[in-house]
Amino acid sequence: MFHLLHRYGDAVREIDDSVGKILTLLQDLKITKDTFVFFTSDNGAALISAPKQGGSNGPFLCGKQTTFEGGMREPAIVWWPGHIATGQVSHQLGSIMDLFTTSLSLAGLEPPSDRVIDGLDLLPSMLQGQLVDRPIFYYRGNTLMAVTLGQYKAHFWTWTNSWEEFKQGIDFCPGQNVSGVTTHTQEEHTKLPLVFHLGRDPGEKYPLSFASTEYLDVLRRITPVVQQHQEALVPGQPQLNVCNQAVMNWTPPGCEKLGKCLTPPESVPKKCFWPH
What is the pTM of this model? Predict the structure, then answer.
């Protein structure tokens, strides 16, 4: 029987098999109670990939490289036998930045006090079921695009990808069009942000009415949070500039032995040429 193996499905099966081998080894070594395993992704499915090759984001809007839920929201699985019971579900909103702080907590260490640490210790949520109402800020380049607070998400800018890219067939939101939201030009909403209730509208299709009491209440909550964030923000020097062609010139592993390494251009970090 001939089977046409789907590349995305193949990748999922390979990851499943590899993670299974790691967990089995931990069990064989009898160190599961001393090993904290956290499984997640760094972004939503890359819908820009060929049809059915980038996965699915279900009801969420758009995909990787956008700040809509399809690009930013991922599930996470925590495995720590003897400490975290099976079958539990937490609705705590987390960030990969939290893994640093959580890891320090696991080791009984305090975070550095000479700098601002953005990560949150997730252990109280995982072990005691506590929920922390914390904001999450979404950036593209150095622009604050959106913020989530509780069940609400406010967009200060909306943009998928440029018309130039879109006309070339590059689409971060294939088959999804929300008027005034999934735009191919950067649309500013800093005065009146577009606000969605993610519990009722996870697909970000129906922004709250500007005149509604709910919208005004949300705006009163979110505005001081954003102001405090921006006033305390200390810009950092990017360690990996994605617009630096020398950095992005990936060299295949093992190329030295094969004599097939690519020669990267001179490293001249600079800002992206696209609007940000």
Answer: 0.83
